Amino acid sequence: MKFELRAPSYISWIPGKITDWKLWKPAIRCAIVGWICWVLLLIIPVERKLGQASFFIMVVSIINPPSDPLAVFIEKTLGIFLFVGIGWAWGAIAYAIAISVRSGVEPLDAIARESDRFPGLQSSDPASFLQQSVFDGVYLETKSSAVMATFLGVGVAIMTYLRGKLAPSFGQPTASILACIVMDVIMTYGALIPTYDAVLANVFVIPMLMYTGVAILGSALIFPETVQEQYCTRYISLLSQMKTIMEEQPKMLAATPGTEEWNEWNKLKGQREGLGTGYQSLDVSGSNLKREVTWGRFSHDDLTDLQDGVRKLIVRIGGMAYFHRTVSEWLERKTLAEESRASSRAPSQVGSRAPSPTREESETRPDPADHRLSTPNIDTPKAYQNGNHLDQSESHLDPSDSQLDLPPGSQLDVPREDIRRRSLSHINLRRLLNETFGDSLLSPSESISIDESGRSIPRGRKRKEHDHHWFPWHSDHDSPRLHGPTPVGVFESMRYISVHARFLVPGEMEDVEKMHALLAEAAGPLLEVCAEALGSTEKFFDAVIHNKWWKFHQRKTMAARMKADLQKKKDIKEKLTRALESYKTTDRLRPVERYRHRALTPHTPYRGLFFVSIYSFHLVDFATSLLAMLEEVLDVEEKRSKCKLWWPTITLSGFLGGGGRSDPNELDDEDPETIEGLQLFSEPAEARDPDSEAPSNIFYYYGGKVQRGISGMFRRGDAFFAAKAGIITVVVAMPQYVQSTASFYYYHRGLWAIIMAQLTLQRWAGDTIIQWVWRIIATFCGAAIGTTLWYISSGSSQGNAFGLAAVGAVVLPFIFFLRLNSPYIVMYVLFCVTIFLVLGYSRQDGVGGFSTVNSGWGWDVGWRRFVLVVIGITVAAIFALIPPETSRHSVRRTVSKSIEGLGSVHAELLSYAGRTHSGADTIIIDDLVRINVKLRAYLTSRISGAEYEPTLEGKWPAEKYRKLQTTLLELSDLLGQLMTVYWRIGQTHIDQRWREGLVLRTRFLQPTFIGETMAIYYILATALKTAAPLPQILPTPLVDRAFDKRYGLRVPQGSDPDAKRSHFDTDDTPTPGTPREPTSAMRDPADHPLAEKHVRLEEPAPAPSPKRMLDRQELTFDMLTDEGYMIFVTGVMTTYDMLTRLDRLVMVVRELVGEKYPIRGLDREALLADYDA
């Protein structure tokens, strides 16, 4: 047995980042600023001026480090002080009211008891005696304490609510956290003091102001970075990653599919995800570009306009990963089918059938039809003997379904249902279903097999002689099932397998390998030029970074350098243009040349051609987008020839709500049912209120808004969470308002228990439990390291300023490196804060000290800090479970909202596919990006949190939700690729019959199929949101409904007289590319709501046979070389994959929510029979 020692995930990230100098620069800047603040704290006069909470200067430096560009840091700091001011004002109001309700009577008995505790102090030092009496709770009164506690709970609740609503603007969530701390100070300490002290908050505000001044100077002088530089650096990082991918593409294409070398390129998916994460950071910088004054050639708008270009490239380069995934998935299904067939074939004996076969015999008994299908015949073409007539496509594009048919009179000219049934008998359905959809479709002891008569039998159950039900678990009597859940999705599973039975047949591997080798040779030159063009764009942004105003010596040669750089980019552009045109007209056709002298019959293997078409389409699309970006860069360079000062253009609305988050790892209380930045499409459809008519006057209009707003606020989970935060604060602060415990609470710094309870409490119980674990680990490690550093610097003394300064200089760079770069931001913030709380308190008590509070130093501070944190976070963990707002519900609602959002994008894509357009739909792209961010960042953290939640209901199906997440991300990418397909196929140089052929082949714009698809989106979203079961029978698998009809596709040739005829003639003569006898979805196209579409919406007649519907035309070599055919193939395959993901969503959701409305006694023939659309 092999044992491996693996570091925990919260440590294992360090080796991969510690050698990156770019990550050290902001860490060093923050470390120098932090060290200056630490030295100020060590100077006793300065420490006295900072006040009793002088150590807070280090806490703020860790919570709000100057790691961002100066403009962003100043904006964030202004938001922090705004909210701190609001918290201060709220506390001052509470303080004033609390003073006004005091009785004004001196507590003589309490003062006498205090005098007995400190004999002689009252007469010798009245000021010290008064201070001691105040913090011992002598002047506490019930009325004033009640006012303070009420205002504290309400104030914290409001700040907690705003923290989730306003992030990331106004410096959130840091601003709300610091505002809560200020209110904690005023309304806990204020209750002890019998007189009004309006500046009580200075105990924290003064250290914050001191730190802010040092941080602003540090940001301006130490490794200064502008937003423009940050933007360009992140842009260069994305271009560099894409350049690496393009340089590695020839190696991927040179690998033989199915080999270990080929499987190594599964990393393309991770590289694509890395580009998406990098773009999020770029988007943050882009949103902040207009917030600073810059000097240079290019304005803020010039650079933000270029952001759209890299976004398109990231979307396009995903096609490379899609190509690899498509080939790999086909190989997996092919291998699975071959293994299943090999395991199911056994020698058959001639004779009477055994009366009662065993389970093993029934699983391996061959179908008699097997012998007939596998026996060669002199009249049967060789392609039929090896099954190639069934293996024309992955269902991505099946020539036999689109243009070609089996020759009449063949020995295999049998009914389609018989072929399907016999094909099914060779396949291990359970294994294939598990590979495609996952487990839980059947109970662990069952799988499906199909007997010789074609009847489906669940293995592990005895076959009943007179059972007329399609599966025994649909029988009329109920029996308890203690061994596992009731099987779900059997209907879809069987139909899904019946569709794939035609495609999971070996025979084209050799063709795929040959076409793959030809593709590698053909695509090499264009890939090389694309990498060179990406490098040229990198140099452009690098020049923007290094064009500084103080480099006067470069001004004389600037014009010559600009001219030379511009000429180089023009040369690259021309080179890319030539390479792209050469690939489209010549190189792309090299693999296709294999078909020039071959008979293009139903028996010809086309799968390799389909894969080549996919890659060629995405490569051409990427090169085209790269060329467009190069043109934009050239336009900007030609337009801006001189450097100038560019002023910020900040609007009030942009300042209030447009701030970008500077720390992408920061955890907010985000609403699971809100996708930030998701845009609404302009459409006539709108939701209605079933409880009221549309408002008939202005009173009803605004009254309804107010009513819905108030009722919605109380129904929302974030309002309830804010109330819980207020309550927990009052509960933890309660000892401070009780005279018998006030002294103990104050002297042992119970304030930090309040702060930790506030910071630990999260909206979702799972997050609170995770943070409880993280904070225990972080506080223990921080207290241990802080105590160790204290004794290293000071030994057995009460503090050595020089030793502490030296220790700070050594450890601060590493502390800030961990703080800035750790993916576990909350854990490392608390770790770093604990270190300096131990050192700061020890320094204050040992040397500078305040007489009222002295906890000691070193070990005494360390263990007290740990205990306080444990108390605070434990109370938060308990409150998180009373009552719990579970992350499990959050995950369900997030997935539901994401499905709903993708449904809206799909609907808009349908509109996009049917109208003329000059470019990609930016709203669709933006929405897909936003949904991806929600799924990748937010949902990942929610799923991780849900796994920590305690439950009495059973294990939470985390893997199923991860499967939903993965499927939704793939569906999102496929929708984006499909939009690109319809953009390209709608261009003017592509004959529009290809587009019509695409929508007819995929039924993409057929009204009945649109209704079925949109219904699936809505049903899935609603089922997950409400936890309602799905109907047992749904219009799925969608892939079956999309590809169950055969359409003719007559593509115009150069000599075709119809080629120049208007595609939308109004006469009755059917146009090429359409079925000959369709039933129009709308007799008058003008009556259709989408009448402006340029694709006729048509559906096949329900009754006529396929032969009457087909527009027969043999596939020609000229058609294969047409660019429209390449896009057509990609569109069909992408549509197939998109529908497969939707079907997979249905299956996984069934596993989660179950089924209802069972249909009993359903005949198997009805199960597997084709049904009309």
From TrEMBL:
It is a multi-pass membrane protein. The chain crosses the membrane at residues 27-44, 78-98, 145-162, 174-193, 199-223, 719-738, 744-761, 773-793, 799-818, 825-842, 862-882. Residues 1069-1079 have a biased composition (Low complexity). InterPro entries: ArAE_2_N, BRE4-related_DUF2421, Memb_transporter_dom. Keywords: Coiled coil, Membrane, Transmembrane, Transmembrane helix. Residues 20-333 form the Putative ER transporter 6TM N-terminal domain. One of its GO terms (cellular component) is membrane. It comes from the Eukaryota. Residues 745-878 form the Integral membrane bound transporter domain. It is found in: Membrane. Pfam families: ArAE_2_N, BRE4, FUSC_2. Residues 559-586 form a coiled coil. Residues 374-390 have a biased composition (Polar residues). Residues 884-1157 form the DUF2421 domain. Residues 338-417, 1050-1086 are annotated as: Disordered. Residues 358-373, 1057-1066 have a biased composition (Basic and acidic residues). This is ER transporter 6TM N-terminal domain-containing protein.
